[in-house]
Task: structure prediction
Amino acid sequence: MDAKLFDAAKAAMARAYAPYSKFSVGAAILAEDGRIYAGCNVENASFPEGWCAETSALGAMVTAGATRIREIAVIGASALTTPCGGCRQRLAEFGAADTPVHICGPEGHRKTFRLGELLPAAFDKDHLG
Ligand code: THU
Result:
């Protein structure tokens, strides 16, 4: 995994707004255009209204005009901060089964999954006919 991707995810993690869970997460996407889009989790006093770091990063990517993910790095303090179910579905919209999902801790890379491993048999646009 490229150090720049890790650095972007870590910098985003430092910006997390997580006063309720105290669990900061950062995500950084290397998109098809060769650029990196990062995001952090943004919590809310109305707990279900908060959102994840991966969702923030996807929003930045799409806003910039990119719609395909080459790789994504996610960083958090748990043993393996893997994307939640909803984010797996959102990532699948813009990635492929073989898209690398690099899971990191504050010290660096820990494990790489493929998106298809995290969300097998994904529901996607092909199902809509
Ligand atoms: N969270 C993320 O941002 N990404 C993940 O991959 C897992 C969970 C956030 C959501 C919430 O703000 C906090 O972590 C605790 O669940």
Remarks:
- The mean pLDDT is 98.
